[in-house]
């Protein structure tokens, strides 16, 4: 029988409720999926990231087959194709579908290639809206057109109103759009105490097979797999959500910016990868959090802070990505050209904060937001690393890394490479910030209070050097003017000593 519809299903589209399946008929239609080396090698992917994608894909395919759906699945090692385009081209020839459909891909590169491949086969690719998200690229574009500046706060309020989340009529519940005054705490000298440990999902037989394949086909890739415990099915993702809402959401708000040695998870949800692979819908996550507040199980400050990340930031960065691609990846507003230090791939550095964050990243494929923004991201910004190299590193090493969310966070928020499309100022700070928010510095050979000299904290040295290098335009920005005023208080000798120390440090890490 002729194949009526072939639905292309990518590794981050594992959702049978997607709109692309609305007209799916088991007797005439089929799903197409492929594991290809290129998706693990176009950036040098962490083993846990590859494992998560492949395991979730195989679980999804098995589930579909179990319910009688035909799945044309290309498994790693069982075919010769290295790229999605080449595997698809061969299968279109073989299967000869009448129509080819795909949910709007999350990666511009993949989107273009799939379109070109289907066109070359004499067919047209139907791209279906991704209703996983609250917003759409088209609606975001309309919103953006009416704005002089694209700022999260305006967008987030519009989203709250439009979707009626944490609202009483037209007003935010609790009388305020945000509760930052109650949040952003550090743990203080006593530390966090006993933390609730997240629910783990030890590898089942299928995941163990994937792990063996990853070790076999990608042995030189970064990262370890012995601690792999990410949810790989929708059921596990729901359990992870429940566990987070019951045990960590109540304290999420106050401690969302805090850092602590040997505590990778703190009160974070660990749900980004499950959402990005579409094992879990953001609506379900947001509803669960809102209900926890309505039932008195979590305070409003935590619930609002958490919902802001998903309804606000997550949707906002996606809007920016599709608004600005493909030129977004070329941004280098600060004219930064240094190479990413080699220790980003090993964690071998004497800077304690970076060592902690990098080793944890290699162990789990995870670092929480402030580690990504204010440790690895901040250091690369201050050092002046070429943004594209920073982008490629972030896209490689985190289990939740998909380009629509990674690129705006890295290039916009963290590296200011877009010159302020995304953030109103660069997130630049000295080692004093790290000292205030964590206990990393007490385990470090450097002194966060020192600007120059052998034991000066490299973050602090590079921060004052960064201010000097960018003094002109930072003075013109009302949000960084104060930082430049502090720089102006330094005498010429101090400034020179900073420059000398910064140059020495740069040489040492290059
Ligand atoms: C340089 C840099 C790169 C990043 N790369 C990615 C990436 O590749 N993939 C990714 O999902 N997130 C990325 N983020 C955002 C954020 O750091 C992660 O979503 C978060 O750390 C994931 O951990 P969690 O699920 O425990 O999050 P939580 O702290 O529990 O937050 C809850 C959820 O909110 C969402 N969220 C929070 N912050 C952001 C944000 N800034 N942008 C978008 N969504 C957000 C995530 O879905 C997350 O699961 C990046 C941030 C930075 C600064
Ligand atoms: S002293 Fe500087 S390098 Fe060391 S942990 Fe603190 S911020 Fe990091």
Automatic annotation (TrEMBL):
UniProt keyword annotations, A-Z: Lyase
Coiled coil: none
InterPro entries in the record: Crypto/Photolyase_FAD-like_sf, PhrB-like, Rossmann-like_a/b/a_fold, UV-DNA_repair_photolyase
Pfam families: DPRP
Keyword Ubl conjugation tagged: no
Domain of life: Bacteria
Listed Gene3D superfamilies: 1.25.40.80, Deoxyribodipyrimidine photolyase-related, DNA Cyclobutane Dipyrimidine Photolyase, subunit A, domain 3, HUPs
GO terms, molecular function: lyase activity
Protein's UniProt name: Deoxyribodipyrimidine photolyase-related protein
Organism: Aquisalimonas asiatica
């Amino acid at each position: 029988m002729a194949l009526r519809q072939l639905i292309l299903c990518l590794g981050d589209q594992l959702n049978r409720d997607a709109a692309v399946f609305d007209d799916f008929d088991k007797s005439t239609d089929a799903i197409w999926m492929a594991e290809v080396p290129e998706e693990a090698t176009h950036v040098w992917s962490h083993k846990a990231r590859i494992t998560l994608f492949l395991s979730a894909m195989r679980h999804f395919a098995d589930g579909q087959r179990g319910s009688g759906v035909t799945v044309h699945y290309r498994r790693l090692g069982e075919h010769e194709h290295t790229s999605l385009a080449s595997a698809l081209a061969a299968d279109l020839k073989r299967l000869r579908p009448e129509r080819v459909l795909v949910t709007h891909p999350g990666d511009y590169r993949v989107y273009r290639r799939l379109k070109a491949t289907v066109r070359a086969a004499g067919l047209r690719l139907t791209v279906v809206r991704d209703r996983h998200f609250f917003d759409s690229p088209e609606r975001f574009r309309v919103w953006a057109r009416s704005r002089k500046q694209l700022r999260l706060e305006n967008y987030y309020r519009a989203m709250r109103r439009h979707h009626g989340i944490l609202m009483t009529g037209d007003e935010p519940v609790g009388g305020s759009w945000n509760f930052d005054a109650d949040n952003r705490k550090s743990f203080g000298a006593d530390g966090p105490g006993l933390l609730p440990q997240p629910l783990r999902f030890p590898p089942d037989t299928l995941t163990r097979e994937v792990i063996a394949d990853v070790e076999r086909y990608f042995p030189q890739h970064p990262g370890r797999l012995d601690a792999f415990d990410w949810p790989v099915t929708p059921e596990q993702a729901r359990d992870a959500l429940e566990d987070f809402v019951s045990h960590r959401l109540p304290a999420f708000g106050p401690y969302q910016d805090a850092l602590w040695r040997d505590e990778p998870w703190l009160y974070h949800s660990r749900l980004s990868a499950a959402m990005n692979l579409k094992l879990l819908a953001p609506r379900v996550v947001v509803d669960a959090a809102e209900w926890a507040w309505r039932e008195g199980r979590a305070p409003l400050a935590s619930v609002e802070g958490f919902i802001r990340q998903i309804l606000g930031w997550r949707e906002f960065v996606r809007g920016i990505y599709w608004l600005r691609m493909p030129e977004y990846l070329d941004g280098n507003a600060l004219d930064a050209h240094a190479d990413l230090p080699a220790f980003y791939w090993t964690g071998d550095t004497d800077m304690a904060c970076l060592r902690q964050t990098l080793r944890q990243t290699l162990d789990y494929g995870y670092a929480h937001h402030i580690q990504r923004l204010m440790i690895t991201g901040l250091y690369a910004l201050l050092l002046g690393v070429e943004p594209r190299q920073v982008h490629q590193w972030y896209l490689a090493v985190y289990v939740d890394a998909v380009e629509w969310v990674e690129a705006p966070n890295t290039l916009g928020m963290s590296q200011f490479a877009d010159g302020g499309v995304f953030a109103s100022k660069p997130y630049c700070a000295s080692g004093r910030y790290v000292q205030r928010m964590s206990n990393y510095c007490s385990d470090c050979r450097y002194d966060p209070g020192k600007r120059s000299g052998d034991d000066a904290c490299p973050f602090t040295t590079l921060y004052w050097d960064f201010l000097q290098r960018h003094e002109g335009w930072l003075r013109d920005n009302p949000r960084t003017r104060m930082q430049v005023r502090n720089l102006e208080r330094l005498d010429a000798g101090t400034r020179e000593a900073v420059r000398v120390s910064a140059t020495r440090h740069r040489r040492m890490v290059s």
